Amino acid sequence: MDPSTAFYVISLIKILLVFAVLMTTLAYLQWVERKVIAHIQVRPGPYFVGPHGLLQPLADVIKLITKEDLLPPYVNKPLYLAAPFIAVSMALLSISVIPFGPEIDVFGYHTYMQLTDLNIGVLFVLAVSSVGVYGVALAGWSSNNKYALLGALRSSAQMISYELPLSLAIAAPLLISNTLSLRKLVETQGGNPAHAGTLWDWNLFHGWQWIGFIVFLIAAFAETNRIPFDLAEAENELVAGFHTEYSSMKFAAFFMAEYANMITVSAMAVLLFLGGWVAPWPAEYGSGLVPVAVFALAGLVAIYHGLHPARRMDRFSLPVVGVIFLMIAAAFLAPFTQSWLLPLFWFCAKTGAILFAFIWVRGTLPRFRYDQLMGFAWKYLFPVAVVNLLLTGLVVALVG
Amino acid sequence: MDVILFLIFAAIALVAAVNVVVQSHPISSAISLIGVMGSLAVLYLLLGAEFIAAAQVIVYAGAVMVLFLFVIMLLNAGTEARQSKSETAHLLGVPALVVFALLLVYFIHQQPESGVHFGGFTGGSAQAVGRALFTTYLLPFEVTSVLILIAIIGAIVLARKEI
Amino acid sequence: MSQVPLSWFLVLSALLFALGVAGFLFRRNIITVFMSIELMLNAVNLSFVTFAYQHKDVSGHLFVFFVMVVAAAEAAVGLAIILTVFKNRGTLNIDDISSMKN
Amino acid sequence: MLLWLIPLFPLAGFAINGIFGRRFPKASINAVAIGSVLLSFLWVLKTLAGAGPLNAPLTEHYFTWIQSGTLSIGFDMTIDRLTAVMLLVVTGIGSLIHIYSIGYMAHEGGYYRFFAYMNLFMFFMLTLVLAANYLLLFVGWEGVGLCSYLLIGFYFDKKFATDAGNKAFIVNRIGDFGFSLAAFLIFKQFGSLDFAAVSGQAAGAPTGALTAIGLLLLLGACGKSAQIPLYVWLPDAMAGPTPVSALIHAATMVTAGVYMTARSWPIYVHAPQAMEMIAIIGTATAFFAATIGLAQNDIKKVFAYSTVSQLGYMFMGVGCGAFSAGIYHLMTHAFFKALLFLGSGAVIHALSGEQDLRHMGGLRHKIPWTFWTMMCAAVAIAGVPPFAGFWSKDAILLAAHAHAPWMYWAGTVTAGLTAFYVFRAMFLAFFGQYRGHHHPHESPAVMLAPLAALAALSLAGGWLFQVPQFLSAFFPAHEVPEDASLMAISTAAGLIGIALAYLMYVAKPALADSFAGSVKGLYWLVYNKYFVDEIYDAAVVTPVIDGSRAVLWKGVDAGLVDGAVNGVGARCRNVGSVLRLWQSGNIRSYATWVLVGGVLMIVAIGLAGGAR
């Protein structure tokens, strides 16, 4: 194949791969969320569709697809139909610039574990997420329902307000790394292939950048309309907010958009502050063995429980899962797969940790009042972000 | 490739712009305007203005037009009435507008011709714009910040309940 | 032909500008009129960027940047004025807002 | 040498107190105000110590202020022997009076405002003194006038105070008009306003032009230094706080005219008629003001007329060619007249605001410090040897005798009158029985310390600072033979004046009234200050007001100007009533016209080939 054809083919493969994985993740993220919250509240969660409810997402998808697609009367039809489409496509678009790993060799072809690298990757993500507001706003307005409209106004005002501290929090690590490209961002945090870095190269550990990280996380919670900032869909006030009038797949689209946004901001947090795919310490000191140990341990625990007589219901499923885990652990030991599996593992582990924080917070915190929400953004978060940016800029100017 | 991209997005921009003018409902006009802005952002990328393209989406599409949408939703502006008090605008405006557009196009074609291809100009990166902004155009930049401050205060004063 | 003629961009800009003028002249909703102004600004921005490409000079981008900032400020104040006008007069029809005369 | 630091310190003090003083506690205001003046004084001392013998002027050029055609005026400062004397007087006496003011103003409102103005005055006065050309001098000249106006009207809630401020300002305008005309003539004649250029070229200039310049400068000096015919503002200026009277209207600002004429000696020595005019005006003012001083009952008015009279002495000296004697008297007068004013301020302070001599008396036991220090000043001004006034007055009278004997005799009589009225005031205030109703109390130490310092200067300053010797190299040689008999006569006149005052106001108090009764008409005339204010009102003020009202207001303004404006307005309305048919009040039609205009402009540019 000549290089240009190869480029198209590889890009197509990557797109399909990322899309498939992302869709699965979206579906299972919801399952994870339900499970985690259930365990926080000391109850089992989904349990009956498949072992431990593992097939629950599949069942949900089938239910949503087969449900009647209801079109309420008196809606503004084109916009009503376009809104969920805008929301979900803008949410998925950001993923295209997220790098999951370094440059790798696949069958002799060099490629990046990233769909495309833009010089203005960070700005691109911001731009796309700012357009995502329209999905919410138009959905609320076109539904011709006062709860939907109020929810949409609330949520778009909230998203615009929190975009400021978010952007300012993003700017500080950008100043340190001196680039807008997401891949270069990771390379300056120890992701340089020439010599691998450590924990201390991450932007999070540069001076007081943990403040910026916290500001970013809070603003990200608000941007994704998650608890404690989910006023747009406060069911005791606004029924279901902007998607009150939506059902079946259009409702699912908003759902997907929310979870895709969560994944995007988590990935952004990892890329900006936590060093992307970089291991906490270099592989020659044994960081490559961490995933092996993790998966092996998980597999052994699963097998032990599966063979235990008290768990009769799981006597097939758990050993199977355990064996799969052991196989994954073995895959991490193979030199052929190690080069791309290890970065992917660290990236997913970090992103997963932040996603877990999202769920954890949802299981723990109550909801803000609306004036508290706005006051918090403008009176506390925004000044802190500005001061953080100014001081960081000063230090960068003095040092660099 | 560049030509195809240009034609696609120029067509989108034109259709959307026509839509802005002919749609009777402000919301539709606003959505069409966002379409114009989005396709213009792509054209900016083609012209090597990557920072401006991103700023176009963030500022125009992401902030200014949301504001418009907000106001339209708040005022619940309906379709406009079919009545006109300005005969001048129609009698004189249409021919003047046609002449205006034709003249512009005519003069543009008087210009020496040159081609545009993607990557022909790479000086529009965030670094280049930022450097120019903080050296050559530092004073306008600072003045602009004052302007923004004035606009904020003005908007707050105007939108207060007492007036 | 792999290159787009530069004049196409300028013609597009001129047409967009003319459409903006048309919107300004023929529309009666004050918000739509305001949006027509934004359309004209965008048309001018396109020609700025095109000329920046032609001269290989980033200054054109700076002008666009400033136009954007001014447009944002203008939108904030302008929409606040529209809100006030609507509160006081209950109409958005530009033909009905002519208190400067008499 | 950093000369600019000298005026900068008070300016900084003014800025700090003027901007933040309202929020400062008094201690901070004091620290800033006194500190800035003291720093200035110390910097003067350091500058003079480092400047060497100052045989030639040292000029510093900071920047070119005005550049237009051949006119080039720099922001220059210069220092020579004359400047050195003035700097020491201004900053030294200024420091003492600032310290005194802490006590005097302690209970007044507008405390910060007072000190801010005082510091501003110091800034302008030092600029005036340090200026190296007439324009910069004029800046200081106008600036001190402004401060004088502000401080005379310090009690702006009292009408007489603001009236007095206005009067001072307006009368000074006449003098400043003369000064500016003189500056124009100087530029026309010499092509420059620098002192150095003028002094270098004066010898070759035509006498007529120099006389004109000299007379116009004299007009300016008459305004600032309160000489006939423009002296009327100074007695009224006593409406300001007493430290202001001491600093501005006795020691420093009013002597600016003397300084300026002395500074312009190259012009005057080549314009003998102008010199003669100075001498005549000085002599006349000295005598005339002294007679008015005889019959005043307000203690500050007495000293005010005394100041006018003593300024006349200085002009007499300058006019007789004894420039150094004039400056000498300027310095000694600053000592004892500042002391007299500060002392009278202490008396007024002691009596809670009483200024009328008829309600004083017998105060010498109640406020002994004030009494004894004022006594030092009184003997100094009376010309009793060997105190300060004796030396300088004697130098002037000797020069006057050499110039024209009648001036000497007029000056001697004036010396007697001076001694008489000063001691009349002293005896009325401090001897006899107390005739008032207040409970006099001695002033605080912060007021007495400056009094004591000035008393020492009044007693010893005359022979301690031999100004004529110091300035002999600066001014043209002016040798006057020593004449013991003339000295004896003038000293005797002073002693006779003291003796008469003692006789009439201490030994036989009834004598004064009977004497006043015997020359009733003359007393009445003197008591009412020869009706000069009334004459000015009738001759100048009323005609100007009436003329303005009848001709300028009714005729020119209402008829011509208003008529033209109204006519233009009416025509515009007529045209507008036609044009407004175009103004539909509809934005879209306006926009259409804008578009049409744009099309036309594009066509025009295209036709002109601009599109290429």
Q: Provide the domain count of chain A.
A: 2
N-to-C SSE series of chain C? EHHH
The profile of the biggest β sheet of chain C is: none
Range of strand content of chain C: under 5%
Distance between the termini of chain C: 60 Å
* Uncertain stretches of chain A: none
List keywords for this structure.
heterotetramer, B: 163 residues, mainly alpha, Four Helix Bundle (Hemerythrin (Met), subunit A), 2 domains, 1% strand, globular, C: 102 residues, Helix Hairpins, 3 helices, elongated
Characterization of the model:
The complex is a heterotetramer of chains A (400), B (163), C (102) and D (612). Chain A contains 13 helices and two strands, in the order H-H-H-E-E-H-H-H-H-H-H-H-H-H-H. With 400 residues, chain A is an all-alpha fold. In chain A, strands 1-2 form a two-stranded antiparallel sheet. Chain B is mainly α and 163 residues long. In chain B, helix 1 (2-22) packs antiparallel against helix 2 (26-46) and helix 2 (26-46) packs antiparallel against helix 3 (50-75). Chain B is globular and about 50 Å long. With 102 residues, chain C is mainly α. Chain C is 76% helix and 2% strand. Chain C is built from three helices and one strand. The model of chain C has no long low-confidence stretch (mean pLDDT 85). Among the domains of chain D are: 294-527, no CATH class; 536-587. The longest helix of chain D has 48 residues, at 532-579. Chain D is globular, with a radius of gyration of 29 Å. In chain D, strand 1 (58-68) and strand 2 form a beta hairpin. The termini of chain D are far apart. With 612 residues, chain D is mostly helical. The chains are: A mainly alpha (400), B mainly alpha (163), C mainly alpha (102), D mainly alpha (612). Chains in contact: A-B, B-C, B-D, C-D. At the B-C interface, helix 1, helix 2, helix 3, helix 5 and strand 1 of B face strand 1, helix 1, helix 2 and helix 3 of C. Strand 1 (115-116) of chain B pairs antiparallel with strand 1 of chain C.
